[in-house]
Specification:
Blueprint lengths: L13 H7 L26 E6 L6 E6 L12 E5 L13 E2 L47 E2 L10 E6 L2 E9 L2 E4 L6 E2 L3 E2 L2 E5 L11 E8 L10 H5 L3 E5 L4 H4 L3 E3 L11 E5 L2 H4 L5 E6 L1 E9 L2 E8 L11 E4 L8 E8 L9 E5 L1 H13 L2
Parallel strand pairs: 3-12, 14-20
Antiparallel strand pairs: 1-2, 3-10, 4-14, 5-16, 6-7, 6-11, 7-8, 8-13, 9-10, 11-12, 12-13, 15-16, 15-19, 17-18, 18-21, 19-20, 20-21
């Protein structure tokens, strides 16, 4: 399982991001883009009209119907278990390439919120290691919420589902990665509805909303309890119904190397319950992974990765990513999965390894 990368291929340490992440020039879009601000389901053939308040900018969709009080839900999503024979095992680290759109500025770190948008955490409880409060903050809470829509922060977003919400990241033109346990799995290889909103902030959808059409997976995981094997393969690729990545760009990926344990390489973005009730993205950086455990499914090896990075439920599905020198976009190396590994004071954990990139590459080929 261990494939040691040469020293020259190590990620940039986070204190190097400010000086080594390339500066870029912004080019305005040549043509206007369509942005879907919301998704609603109405009865087939139902009449719908748009009402716009020109003073406030508020837009209302008005449905004319006699069926008052009737719930309408999207159809179930098709899911595909990727065959283990579909991707050959590789001796080198698996990876795929990212994309930075020229119309977006690049920010090495997300800007902190202006004073007028700041708010105190909704929940103030924290636990230090050695105590048994059901939380996942170790010592000082290093997370902060932000609204910066620069690249690559705009590639991250909120995943709304039939069962709640999680976090996700764009990894292709219409391909979003999140945790398997965020998906509301259904019978007969189906799942309940999921929507993805890049850089969702207090109800705002600056890049629009997209719905998931197909999900590619190694394992179907269901909370609240995840085995070590579940965590190691706790990531899926969701194919969206629009090419949202053309607006946001997307991150690349790289199979995790255990030789990177202990290095302060990684950033993370997710939508925690405690800071803003899942309504605002939070960033945490200057972090490292502790150790790895190899788990196997169908002849493929992936890592359960332990860490003491501050995460709270809602951040599941959010990416851990780093930058490499002379590359124009960051790479995802793992997806946030579990908490309190081995007990109430245990570390948090995420899943990553070559199968993460292999899954992305398979979805890009099967549903370009």
């Amino acid at each position: 399982m261990d494939r040691k990368a040469p020293k020259s291929s190590r990620p940039l340490r986070i204190h190097e991001w400010a000086t080594h992440v390339p500066k870029v020039k912004v080019t305005r879009l040549k043509a206007q883009a369509d942005v879907a601000l919301d998704r609603l389901v109405v009865a087939p053939g139902q009449s719908v009209r748009v009402k716009t308040d020109r003073e406030t900018g508020m837009v209302s969709l008005i449905a004319r119907t006699s069926e008052i009080g009737v719930h309408r839900f999207p159809p179930s999503i098709r899911t595909v278990k990727v065959p283990t024979s579909a991707m050959k095992k590789k001796e080198a680290l698996a990876e795929h390439e990212g994309f930075r759109p020229l119309h977006l500025p690049l920010a090495q770190f997300p800007k902190t919120l202006p004073r007028e948008l700041r708010r105190p955490p909704r929940f103030g409880q924290k636990a230090l290691r050695g105590r048994s409060l059901a939380t996942n903050i170790f010592g000082t809470d290093d997370r902060y919420t932000f609204s910066d829509t620069s690249f690559p922060w705009c590639t991250c977003g909120r995943v709304d589902t039939a069962a709640g919400w999680g976090s996700g990241v764009m990894v292709g033109p219409r391909h979003m990665m999140t945790a398997s346990h965020v998906v509301p799995w259904g019978p007969n290889n189906t799942a309940g509805w999921l929507n993805f909103t890049p850089l969702y902030f207090d109800g705002s959808a600056p890049f629009g909303v997209a719905s998931v059409q197909t999900i590619y997976w190694w394992k179907q995981n269901n909370p609240p309890s995840l085995s070590d094997n579940d965590v190691a393969f706790d990531y899926v690729v969701c194919v969206l119904d629009s090419r949202m990545g053309n607006l946001t760009g997307w991150m690349g990926s790289r199979g995790y190397d255990s030789g990177w344990n202990g290095g302060n390489y990684w950033g993370h973005v997710g939508y925690p319950t405690d800071l803003a009730g899942g309504k605002r993205p939070a960033f945490i950086g200057y972090q490292s992974f502790i150790d790895t455990e190899t788990e196997s499914t169908g002849g493929r090896d992936s890592y359960l990765i332990d860490h003491d990075i501050d995460v709270i439920p809602g951040q599941s599905g959010g990416p851990y990513f780093g930058w490499w020198a002379n590359e124009p976009w960051p790479r995802v190396v793992s997806i946030q999965s579990g908490q309190q590994h081995g007990g109430p004071t245990g570390p948090n954990d995420c899943g990553g390894g070559n199968p993460l990139s292999d899954l992305i590459n398979y979805a890009l080929t099967a549903a370009p």
